[in-house]
UniProtKB/TrEMBL annotation:
It is found in: Cell outer membrane. Keywords: Cell outer membrane, Membrane, Signal. The keyword Transmembrane does not apply. Belongs to the SusD family. The keyword Signal applies. This is RagB/SusD family nutrient uptake outer membrane protein. Its main location: membrane. It comes from the Bacteria.
């Protein structure tokens, strides 16, 4: 099994009894003891290690899941809706995006469940027995990294939230909203205090655990994000650059020669570019979804990203659904801006060809009437013949007529037929309907570290240095022999260019909504590049609505006002 570090869904009563807003059950009195493990189990060597492993589990509530994807890629400049699926309010910014949306509740609760497990490990570490001081320090540092990571997701999505840095031992109605500054202070304190005790290497000897390199990458990203928040400080960009440079220089990471190989499934997921990954396996028990998300349909377990980018190839001439081409849920299709502007250069830049699937080979031979390609009336296929090709430009009708397959041109793109992102497909699933994928999710990779560095340097006015950093990423993305053509000069190094470069390199990797929010242009770019959201999007949408369950379960003020305030506009 590729992932050496097994994260288990671990629950004991002392860890599962979260603050009221983090309860998975609707009624606080409906407390279910789901394990017979005693409250002191965490003080034993095995219990302590199990609790640390459990602290990682909440990563799988956000990364490589429908809910995490919905909260990060929907409603941006790069993606529009496909024909199927729920949660389209995140695209349209309409009344469907409200405080009752189940995936918002599910992610909120799972992140706080993870935070409380981290708190339990940190609080109880001094009394844990049978563990060396050095190992105990390393494990506490790991959970500080995780606690910071969870709060970073929360503050980006919701702003100031409830800040709890000690274990909550039982249900409570007393919660309050901290300021963004308080949240960032806690995040940075956790990460910076964790650095000395994390493994000082690129990859943990127990692969999947947090390392010093992962913490420095996260610190770089936190400072970059903080720099445009209400908590900003004058040295945020300088600190972001320093931590990014540390990751690049000190651990032996390197970009893989081929962009496509970064996403090779199986053993390829453990490679020299990966700084930190969220672990998934083919074991359905290990990958099981947690109750609030499973009940909402938000996560069926495993890495689900293979489901959401596919087009409806399986009803087209010569094709039927199979494992290789995937189960197409048709949730996301690239915007015109993404395809025609961000990925406009296909002569020098390999990332268009290596990010999207443009060819399908027939797995259902026979003669068929054509559907979307009006250049011919019928097509006939043998097994393995090309059945569908997407050239990426408006191929003339006469040229299409000469092709023995259907050609999908941009004018025929629709919510069912479009260019699908291919980097997350999972042909190792056991059958064609199986949803839980086994890929690790590459949360931090070196290419993004270079892009963080370039942005931080550009914001400091260090345009030449930013150009050098971004050119490292661009040279790797070049077709062989096109490296020099891919390099830009300082005159080209602008924020607009950097925004597009992040789009090319990180398309679909659960970052874009947070990027637009950080840049302060979410509303502007949705209005300009995403017609579906343009009508309704407004500054309110730089934050998500607080889940109604959190508000309802919080003790009201003396004057009857909500004890946990909703974000403005919801």
């Amino acid at each position: 099994m590729k992932s050496l570090f097994s994260i288990k869904s671990f629950r004991i009563l002392g860890l599962a009894a979260l603050l009221l807003g983090g309860q998975s059950c609707k009624d606080v009195l409906d407390e279910k003891v789901i394990a017979s493990i005693g409250n002191d189990y965490i003080n034993t060597p095995k219990g302590f290690e199990d609790a640390v492993r459990a602290s990682y589990a909440a990563l799988r509530s956000f990364y490589a899941t429908q809910q995490g994807l919905t909260m990060t890629e929907f409603g941006t400049d790069l993606y529009a809706t496909g024909s199927d699926g729920s949660y389209k309010g995140f695209h349209f910014y309409d009344t469907q995006l409200n405080s009752f949306v189940d995936i918002l509740q599910g992610v909120w609760e799972e992140l706080y469940r993870g935070i409380n497990t981290c708190n339990a490990v940190i609080d109880r570490a001094p009394t844990a027995t049978g563990i060396s001081d050095a190992l105990k320090k390393q494990r506490v540092a790991e959970v500080k990294f995780l606690r910071a990571h969870y709060y970073f997701i929360l503050v980006q999505q919701w702003g100031g939230v409830d800040l709890r840095l000690t274990e909550t031992l039982g249900p409570t109605k007393k919660t309050s909203r901290a300021t963004e500054a308080d949240i960032y202070k806690a995040i940075l304190a956790d990460l910076e205090s964790a650095l000395p005790d994390l493994e000082n290497k690129a990859k943990s000897s127990d692969y999947g655990r947090a390392t010093k390199a992962a913490a420095e990458h996260l610190l770089a990203k936190v400072y970059l994000t903080k720099a445009t928040s209400s908590a900003k400080a004058t040295d945020d960009y300088a600190k972001a650059a320093t931590y990014a440079q540390n990751v690049i220089a000190n651990y032996g990471f390197k970009l893989l020669p081929d962009f496509a190989s970064v996403f090779a499934q199986g053993a390829g997921e453990i490679n020299d570019e990966v700084v930190f990954s969220v672990q998934y396996t083919s074991d359905p028990l290990t990958n099981a979804a947690s109750p609030p998300l499973a009940s909402s349909g938000g996560n069926t377990g495993g890495n689900n990203l293979h489901l959401f980018f596919g087009m409806q190839y399986d009803t087209q001439a010569g094709m039927t659904r199979d494992i290789f081409y995937g189960r197409p849920f048709r949730r996301l299709r690239p915007t015109t801006y993404a395809l025609e502007t961000v990925f406009a250069d296909r002569v020098n830049d390999s990332r268009y060809k290596k990010s999207f699937r443009d060819t399908w080979l027939s797995n259902n031979p026979g003669t068929y009437s054509t559907a979307f390609d009006k250049s011919k009336a019928t097509v006939t296929f043998k097994s393995g013949d090309t059945a569908i090709f997407i050239p990426g430009y408006e191929m003339p009708l006469a040229e299409r007529a000469k092709k023995p397959y259907q050609v999908l041109v941009p004018s025929a793109y629709s919510e069912t037929l479009f260019l699908p992102l291919s980097k997350f497909f999972d042909p190792l699933r056991p059958d064609r309907t199986y949803e839980p994928g086994s890929r690790d999710y590459l949360a931090f990779r070196l290419a993004e570290t270079y892009l963080i560095l370039a942005e931080a340097q550009l914001k400091q006015g260090k345009t030449a240095e930013a150009t050098t950093a971004i050119n490292v990423v661009r040279r790797r993305a070049a077709w062989p022999g096109k490296e020099a053509a891919m390099e830009i000069t300082a005159a080209n190094m602008t924020m607009d260019f950097l925004m597009e470069e992040r789009g090319r390199e990180l398309m679909g990797e659960q970052m874009r909504w947070m990027d637009l929010k950080r840049w302060g242009n979410l509303v502007e770019r949705v209005k300009k590049y995403n017609p579906q959201g343009a009508v309704n999007v407004k500054e309110t949408h730089n934050l998500r609505p607080i889940p109604q369950t959190q508000i309802d379960r919080t003790e009201k003020g003396a004057d009857g006002s909500p004890g946990f305030a909703q974000n403005p506009g919801y």
